[in-house]
Amino acid sequence: MTSVQAADLENTLYLDLKDGRVTIEMMPEVAPSHVARIKELARSGYYNGKLWHRVIDGFMAQTGSPRGDGMGGSTLPDLNAEFNDVSHKRGIVSMARTGNPNSANAQFFIMLADNTGLDGQYTVWGKVVDGMEHVDAIKKGDKYDNGSVADPDTIVSMTVAADAE
């Protein structure tokens, strides 16, 4: 039995990218509201086709902006922070926000490398358990322009595993 088969499918995401599938294990025990939001948005199809608008080599890849410009979120209300003790290591999935700690909504990022300086400032809600090589293959942005990506890659689809075929 593989780790994906043994996993809790209700708290597992399939993130399909141009190069293949990424499996994300969600962490409702440390960020229940954020996990519930991600599942709600994934089930509504919100993330399908979203751009990887900010990708900084050696740091992180960010997506979930409604217009692909790094601004805004879904039509749902912002979430209160659920900062936790999970460290921002390679493969960790965390919520993006504005300067207001309680402004996370739909945008998230996947860590391409360790950066513990983010710990306690952003809500970690998941971790990549398979397919990190596909995250690494996301087109990188201009390091001199805050990671802004010209002609960015997109999310093909994002599905809660329990809903997959």
Summarize the topology:
Elements: H1 3-6, E1 12-17, E2 20-26, H2 32-44, E3 54-56, E4 60-63, E5 92-95, E6 108-111, E7 124-130, H3 132-136, E8 157-160
Antiparallel strand pairs: 1-2, 1-8, 2-7, 3-4, 4-6, 5-6, 5-7
| CATH C-level class | Mainly Beta
Radius of gyration: 14 Å
Number of strands: 8
CATH superfamily: Cyclophilin-like
Give the low-pLDDT segments: 1-6
Element-level helix/strand string:
HEEHEEEEEHE
Helix percentage:
10-25%
The total count of helices amounts to 3
Task: Specify the overall morphology.
Answer: globular
Q: What's the number of domains?
A: 1
CATH fold-type name: Cyclophilin
Summarize the structure.
It is built from 3 helices and 8 strands, in the order H-E-E-H-E-E-E-E-E-H-E. Mean pLDDT is 95; it is low at 1-6.
What labels describe this entry?
165 residues; alpha+beta; Cyclophilin; 8-stranded antiparallel beta sheet; 3 helices; 24% strand
Describe the protein.
39% of the residues are buried. By secondary structure, this protein is α+β, with helices and mostly antiparallel strands. It is 13% helix and 24% strand. It contains 3 helices and 8 strands; from the N terminus they run αββαβββββαβ. An 8-stranded antiparallel beta sheet has the order 3-4-6-5-7-2-1-8. Strand 1 (12-17) and strand 2 form a beta hairpin.
